[in-house]
Amino acid sequence: MEDNRNITVFLDDDPKPFASFAPPVKIVLDTTKIPDGKHTLKIVAKSSNNVEGIREIPFVVRNGPEISVLGLKENETVDAQVPITINAYGSETSEFFIIRGSETPKAIPAWVWALLIIVFAFGLFYLIMYWNADLYKSFF
Questions:
Q1: How far apart are CA 34 and CA 11, in angstroms?
Q2: Which one of 45, 74, 121, 125 is least enclosed by Cβ atoms within 10 Å?
Q3: By the 8 A CB rule, do 46 and 4 touch?
Q4: 81-134: pLDDT as tens digits
């Protein structure tokens, strides 16, 4: 019996195969040659009796810098003047790692402020309810 198993790999909707191999195979996908954005890896495998199986794997390539925008969200309705902070940072490597501060400055979330107020209010309540000067005579 002839072994005519074959794995063909396609990128996006390109009719020309990206690669073709006999199984099993290990490949390295070099994303530096693929433009940033959404892509699909389509794998077509043929068994020894020519039965085909297809698997599609969607993935996103981001080789360029990450772009962070604060102050404007997608499909947001805005009016007047809107302050926007834009930051772009990538995975550039260097020999020395120096912390220079936050990559993208963000405000403290509201839940942190609420938790802080609750803890402070409980402490104040406890102090008022259970204050007894006789307990602290040694301090005064």
A1: 9
A2: 74
A3: yes
A4: 888 887 777 665 555 555 555 555 667 888 999 999 999 999 999 888 887 777
